[in-house]
Amino acid sequence: MEYTTLGATGMEVSRICLGCMSFGTPEWREWVLDEEESREIIERAVDLGINFFDTANMYSEGESERVLGNVLGDYDRDEQVVATKGYFEMREDDPNSGGLSRKAIDQELSNSLDRLGMDTIDLYQIHRYDYDTPVETTLRALDDAVRRGDIRHAGASSMWTHQFADALHTAEDLGLERFETMQNHYNLVYREEEREMLPFCQKEDVGVIPWSPLARGYLTRPHEDIDATTRGETEEHMYEHPYREGGGKEVNERVEELADEYDATMAQISLAWLFHKDWVDAPIVGTTSVEHLEQAVEALDIDLVESDVEWLEEPYEPVEVSGHD
Length: 325
Fold this sequence. Notes:
Elements: E1 3-5, E2 12-14, E3 17-19, H1 35-47, E4 52-54, H2 63-72, E5 81-86, H3 102-116, E6 121-126, H4 135-148, E7 151-157, H5 161-174, E8 179-183, H6 197-204, E9 207-208, H7 230-234, H8 248-262, H9 266-275, E10 284-286, H10 290-298, H11 306-313
Parallel strand pairs: 3-4, 3-10, 4-5, 5-6, 6-7, 7-8, 8-9
Antiparallel strand pairs: 1-2
Helix pairs in contact: 1-2, 2-3, 8-9, 8-11
């Protein structure tokens, strides 16, 4: 396993972050694994040297956090870097269970700590931008959480760059803890983040941990076969992102062709492309298979030449911004 420093946090994390959206209960979404199946993958991740895990309170309505906490409780807590997120409404009859008000942050952070079975969360992220709460209110609540010892660092997820810049500048002006990571939408068939967000993060030394690095499976198999998976057949959000547009199909075909040349899988080529990007610290890789997890780790050994990188990128065309409002 390779490790890198996560932005300016000083924390050393594996170059692959294990995404835990697929762990919890299939009652939430059909392709999600139960605790026994999830344990097998999480334990194998630890064996492979992965020390970075990302979940969220909304995944399986809290069960993902509980499963992750149960499994990692069998290991040395100090050796793991655990990240979770809050923003989306957790209970239909409680509007304050969502958003980024002080009340929502305090109560949902407390709930996440209980489910994870941890005293401190290494990285607590806002899952989206809250248009109804002033950013300084959110920042003060997160700053207090750091000072209480509930969290070590705060991070953000998909938003407009001007919103993120305003948040960083507001934190600096008020002397508050600032967002130290950005979890944004970025992969070979969605590169709109290269316009502003990624250069800005690089300039500000913000750690970048992209979600959906394999485009919800679109970059793991020929584009005409994507519906063959359980997620492809049942996931209602599968096609809300414009992966097939803007040259996406040709990019998919080139990934398949290059995978044959390298004797690799399409997923490995797609991840290798991300590993070659200096502004990416650790893509968040979700999986329901030990085999696919092992293949993802093996992708760290694939050394794409510059001409391959350029060839993969060439068909891309601008697409509609996706992943946030």
